[in-house]
Design brief:
With 271 residues, this protein is α+β, with helices and mostly antiparallel strands. It has eight helices and 13 strands. A hairpin with a 2-residue loop joins strand 12 (242-254) and strand 13 (257-265).
Length: 271
């Protein structure tokens, strides 16, 4: 195994030990690909680009099982391959549960990591959520849906960050998007993630968002439905003029993906 690959794995181990997402993703190339080979049904399993990977991992630390565990150390077993760029790495953390102080040790994941020019370009991750749940002292129940509110919050964050790939990854391939207050030239209904991609590309050079102000993200009485109120702030690229657009959206989330959305924005601002 090359010294370069060995150094990258050690940096990953140290970052995992401290649950430092920025440090962990800091060794990824800008166009790296991260795949969750043991991902939960219905949830995104492939993330392209370091920004999308970083956001996914931040969500896992802040809202997932990882946030319940404090790692004292992380054991690493490295298996070299005949490809000098690739190693297979097993991680085994030890530590204590934050809420109870109980000790734990479990095999957390195994990854197939490809390093090129000093950076991770591909990471195939096979995690062990059952082991994490057992370590945290939780009775694990298989869930086929992520909390709908979390998906909608990720959607708002990705919009504010102008991260189109992370945003698109939250929508189902056959998503139905309705815009009842659509300005002239914008369809009031479209079907499919590809159509949404075209819309995003069409405005990429017109405006840039800078931040979001979230008023509320509320689950509705109907199963799978969330109502979100928020404002996106940004600038018009051609003029530098600032703008703010308020939205209220009625979003249906199924198996961790947005399958239907009714988007209401200020008609004059949108035009």
């Amino acid at each position: 195994m090359s010294e370069e690959l060995h150094a990258i794995i050690e940096r990953l181990r140290q970052a995992l030990r401290g649950m430092e997402v920025d440090a962990f993703t800091g060794v990824f190339a800008d166009d790296a690909v991260y795949e969750l080979r043991f991902g939960m049904p219905g949830q995104p399993r492939r993330y392209e680009g370091v920004r999308a990977i970083r956001e996914h991992m931040r969500q896992g630390v802040s809202g997932g099982l990882a946030g319940l565990l404090a790692f004292d150390d992380v054991g690493v077993t490295v298996h070299e391959t005949t490809d000098p760029e690739v190693a297979v790495v097993e991680f085994e953390p030890t530590g204590t549960v934050r809420t109870s102080g109980a000790p734990f040790r479990f095999a957390s994941s195994i990854g197939v990591i490809r390093v090129r020019d000093g950076a991770v370009v591909s990471y195939l991750d096979y995690p062990n959520p059952l082991g994490a749940a057992e370590a945290a002292g939780m009775e694990f129940q298989l869930r086929t849906t992520a909390p709908a509110e979390a998906t909608v919050k990720q959607m708002i964050d990705a919009s504010a960050a102008n991260d189109h790939e992370a945003l698109l990854a939250l929508y189902a391939p056959d998503v139905v998007i309705e815009i009842p207050f659509a300005p002239p030239g914008v369809p009031t209904r479209s079907v499919g993630r590809d159509r949404f991609r075209d819309r995003l590309e069409g405005v990429r050079g017109l405006r840039r968002f800078e931040r979001a102000d979230v008023v509320s993200v509320r689950p509705a009485a109907e199963p799978e439905v969330v109502v979100a109120e928020f404002t996106l702030y940004g600038t018009v690229i051609a003029t530098g003029e600032p703008f703010a657009t308020a939205y209220i959206m009625v979003v249906t989330v199924r198996d961790g993906l947005i399958v239907h959305s009714r988007d209401y924005g200020i008609p004059v601002a949108a035009a």
